[in-house]
Amino acid sequence: MRVLPRLFALFACLVLAAGCANVPEESQPVAVPQQELGQPVNPDVPQPAKDLDALTVVRDFVRASAQPISNNAAARMYLDDGAGKAWAPGKVITIIDDVFATVPATGADTTANPNEVNVVLRGTGLGTLREDGAFISLRTPVELKLLVRRQSDGQWRITNPPPNLVMPYSDFTANYVRVQAFFFAQDSNTVVPDLRYVAGKPQTGLAGRVVGLLLAGPSTSLVGAVRNLLPEDANTEGNVTTAPDGALVVPLTGVADETADVRRLIAAQIVLSLQSVTTNRVRLLSDGAPLVDGHEDWVPSDLPSYTALASPSADQPGLVTVNGRVRSLGDGSLISGPAGQGSGYQVASAAQSIDGRQLAIVEYADGRQRLRVGQFGKDAAPVDLAGATMTRPTWRPTATADGSGEVWTVVDGQTVVRALRTPDGSWVPQVVNADEILQVGPISVLRLSRDGARAAVVAGGQLLVASVVRAQDSVTLRAPRILQGGTLGGVVDVDWLSQDALVAATTMPSQPVVKIPIDGLRLDPFNISNLTLPVHAITAAPGRSIVVADDGGLWTASDVGEVWRPHPHSFGGNASPFYPG
């Protein structure tokens, strides 16, 4: 498999330098109260246990590094006086697996001084947390070499702390909070979640840190794929505080000149982004006055739905392709029109638009595959696009009156194409720039998120997520991330469980079906009971049961841990189910 240089540039594997691993030098992911170097340590910071051996000092130092309060004061307690005052860790955090080793150095790295020990920490890096609070998944070996010296009081302390923070996964999740910072799709008022992590303590500043993420804009990978309605000069006038009546006060400046409609969208961004860290009413102010005239305090239920375009309606039960025809997942019947009745097409795969009104199909024709698009239940017009293979189509929604959107597919594993509807009702193909993804391997699956901002891709058997960046005359799949690389392989299908989570089918016997967030921080295997391996297809949608296809037919489950139940209409072993999108 070819190497993806741009991905490696993003991920920057750890290398040894100056006696320790050098993590990429950027800034802290979130602002936390800082303590001036050399000031007395907060007495509330726990002291290391007495008489720890050198290996335990290093282990406890790494775990304490996950506590960001007071300029990482807890970790500084494991450093000698000089290192404790001088240590200024960089701005990227490396997260490692909970299982790691601390061992004495050997060979040339040993020291003859009985009061010094070179300790080597070895572990597996799971990825890095960047300055913008976004996690980048990358499984890679991590090695730190730390010099530990016995102090005058007999205690061992580290003299050369690493240039950046390194912490185990469980300690990271115990001290950092995952939040959804919401922005808007490029051409609609559909909200798009941006997974970020902020320091969980002190609790009083948590909401302010979330607002700070919104003011700073989307994470690097989403730039160009979403809109931030907060203008660049927007800020807060003082801190985000709690009023005596319990309302959370967000005192904005720099937004007074925005239109009433934009201010309502700004309110939605802030209220939705804060809902994961507070249940308080949110009081939104602009230069001291209500941000939205006549509406000062907000709760999430005050907002209209900003995901209507990204969620299939309840009256769309989903479809399934089987034996060249399309059937309903709801009652098992053949759908109306040539795609279901078999009078016109031999269907290889298909995709229904989110509103259910249109159907895109890939058909077998003259020894090749060809794309057709048309109204559901009616004849579908051929698109000037064919190849030896084409991936199952996927719809990108738009806010147009007919809801036509775009239809995407991948031809021969190498050419990503989007078909656009013209004024006369025909569909014209245009090539999408997918160069970064194609360097990973040929593309076998591509599923656009139902908000249109991202694409989940299977390339070379690996699962990736990329942003859909649109310019005036082009579209690019940018900033691809391999999710759980080195752990998750043999991926054969993927779908969007929600806007920020995926489910995938793999050829791995131990985890044939998995759930994974779009940043790849964790991997949750589903129960394998009742499945006949291998699983070859999967579909999911918000609020729907997950449906998988194996050699025995279709199976459903609602979440990880559930035993798979037979679908009411199994259709046999060559069925491929799909929800709208």
From TrEMBL:
Keywords on this record?
Lipoprotein, Signal
Q: Which Pfam families match?
A: Germane, Gmad1, LpqB_N
Superkingdom assignment: Bacteria
- Extent of the signal sequence: 1-17
Signal: is it a keyword of this entry?
yes
Q: Which residues form the GerMN domain?
A: 207-295
Q: What's the protein name?
A: Lipoprotein LpqB family protein/sporulation and spore germination protein
Query: Whose protein is this, by species?
Result: Amycolatopsis methanolica 239
Q: What gene name does this entry carry?
A: lpqB
